């Protein structure tokens, strides 16, 4: 039996990417670093979540125990500010010479950011929160490039804006990569996410439409179950539309 190129390539990609995972571990506010591991609930293990019905899809944790001690910092962010997240393969940060840093190039897929308003950004529980999407970078069909490709080109950094119209207060910022290299069946897509603890100052009075995690994604979503080893004319990023002020 003759195997197609995707059928040949997929096992090779999977075998070569066993340790090709990644962690969101630093936040910049208007270009200023807030410190390595500061204000971010980072795990000890850099592996993915694959079950979209699990509470682990919220802020990681669970099968990926949190790095100790968990940061109790809350990062001040003016509404309308430019945020930059930084991802790397290991908790030590950038590792020159590591081909899997910031993430293996095979892990193509979208990069997404959500916010959820909370009473206290350091609260332990993250279940039941109401999330709204503020950023997504999926597929550019003209050259078949992905948000992850741009993250790699920017050495692990992703830049986006905090909406200027949302109310002041404490929030969790959920930043996520969905790797689609094995997403031809479910479970197969790999979800990498961490939550940063922020205090938004200024702002407005918009009440965004929200979703729940788990619940925002389904295993049958076209952005979760997909064969990326073909020329795609479009890609639907999972979850709701990005908030527009």
Automatic annotation (TrEMBL):
Gene3D superfamilies: 2.70.50.70
Pfam families: AA9
Xref: InterPro entries: AA9, AA9_LPMO
Molecular function terms, GO-annotated: cellulase activity; cellulose binding; metal ion binding; monooxygenase activity
EC numbers on record: 1.14.99.56
EC class (word): oxidoreductase
Stretch forming the signal peptide: 1-20
Primary localization: secreted
A GO cellular component annotation in the UniProt record: extracellular region
Subcellular location as annotated: Secreted
GO BP: cellulose catabolic process
Coiled-coil spans in chain: none
Keywords annotated in UniProt: Carbohydrate metabolism, Cellulose degradation, Copper, Disulfide bond, Hydrolase, Metal-binding, Monooxygenase, Oxidoreductase, Polysaccharide degradation, Secreted, Signal
Role noted for this protein: Lytic polysaccharide monooxygenase (LMPO) that depolymerizes crystalline and amorphous polysaccharides via the oxidation of scissile alpha- or beta-(1-4)-glycosidic bonds, yielding C1 and/or C4 oxidation products. Catalysis by LPMOs requires the reduction of the active-site copper from Cu(II) to Cu(I) by a reducing agent and H(2)O(2) or O(2) as a cosubstrate.
PANTHER family per the UniProt record, alphabetical: ENDOGLUCANASE II, PUTATIVE (AFU_ORTHOLOGUE AFUA_1G12560)-RELATED
Protein name, per record: AA9 family lytic polysaccharide monooxygenase
Organism: Crucibulum laeve
